[in-house]
Prior knowledge:
By secondary structure, the protein is an all-alpha fold. The chain is built from 10 helices and no strands. It has helices spanning about 5-25, 55-70, 75-100, 110-125, 130-150, 160-190, 195, 200-225, 235-265, 270-305. Helix 1 (about 5-25) runs antiparallel to helix 2 (about 55-70) and helix 1 packs across helix 3 (about 75-100).
Amino acid sequence: xxxxxxxxxxxxxxxxxxxxxxxxxxxxxxxxxxxxxxxxxxxxxxxxxxxxxxxxxxxxxxxxxxxxxxxxxxxxxxxxxxxxxxxxxxxxxxxxxxxxxxxxxxxxxxxxxxxxxxxxxxxxxxxxxxxxxxxxxxxxxxxxxxxxxxxxxxxxxxxxxxxxxxxxxxxxxxxxxxxxxxxxxxxxxxxxxxxxxxxxxxxxxxxxxxxxxxxxxxxxxxxxxxxxxxxxxxxxxxxxxxxxxxxxxxxxxxxxxxxxxxxxxxxxxxxxxxxxxxxxxxxxxxxxxxxxxxxxxxxxxxxxxx
Length: 306
């Protein structure tokens, strides 16, 4: 794995997705021509919305093409990254409009996933990226954007005591689940050499990992909502978020195993087939947990309101 190549891809993704925002901040409403022409879809909602403009796409292509030259890549790489990033951006906007979300409303996981996956697949052969490297870069982009949004949206302005209170609540109510699965994994792996003695143990552990991650993010949304840090999230959007975040976590876990194997000589991964199966099991665990979480959440709210 070339860390430099991944960092270069991340830089191009940041430029491609940040250029339209920068153009808006500089130009305001000038040259703001929506690419959908203001038309509405069959559901009578905007096809894309006024935030997707010809100016934004043009800025993304121009800036990313220049950035690719600066980092020593052919101009066409920058153009490909920008074009496919905008395709992902447009597709995510189309999906959000169908879900009734207003223009410029963020959909964590969905936005960044499409805006990074499409361009990376487009330049994969040109840059010699493997599929795990593509997925690792996508996951890194999503997490980095989430951290940046955390700071931007004002959470950093909370008082220290409030942050401590929220952190304790997250620890008590959410973080214990994935930590419990991780501790069990360490005990099975190191103390009993369980995966070598019984390889089938890997299946329930990855399923439980996916379920624990979905639980963690579900409780995290509830806690942040209780403290008015995030707004209300309806069930459909919550399900999409939880599945996307669980899938991202599964990718990050396999990426960590990959780095561990190549940096410390461990043998956590058994090849591409094993890696893909592990990611699939984690995602299936998340899929299984989501309807249970939604059912439990509705039951809790009904009990609390009685």
